[in-house]
Amino acid sequence: MALISEGQLVALGGRRDSTERPTRLDGGVGLWGGRSADYGTLWREQPHVRTVIDFLARGVSQLGLHAFERQPDGDRARVHEENAR
User: Fold this and answer.
1) Are 1 and 32 in contact (CB under 8 A)?
2) Range of 53's domain?
3) How buried is residue 19: exposed, middle or buried, by Cβ count under 10 Å (0-12/13-18/19+)?
């Protein structure tokens, strides 16, 4: 199995069969073939990951964030700028 990364063919080694599963890595991503990578490595080495994350980050950054204050009855009330403490 292979993939193309930054215009070059990269061999992942081995043949994927139905029993092979991604490995789990805390703080990272499990990949096929027993390989794993942390998020920083994926960010640096995979330009398509950066493209998608940047796209999502720009979209989320345009959303307005609201602040809420917990009420005594357990409900919440939105805090408007003129009411902010």
Assistant:
1) yes
2) 2-83
3) exposed
What whole-number distance in Å separates Cα of residue 28 and Cα of residue 23? 10
What 41-49 contacts at long range (C-beta under 8 Å, 24+ apart), as own/partner pairs, is: 45/5, 45/6, 46/5, 47/6
**pLDDT per position as a tens digit, 29-78:** 777 777 778 888 888 888 998 999 999 999 999 988 888 999 999 899 99
Query: CB count, 10 Å around CB of 39?
Result: 13
Token readout for 23 is 């490995």
Q: Is the pTM for the entire model greater than 0.90?
A: no
Based on the structure, what is the number of domains in the chain? 1
- Distance, CA of 57 to CA of 71 (rounded, Å): 32
Closest Cα partner for 23 from 13, 41, 39, 35? 35
- DSSP for residue 64: P
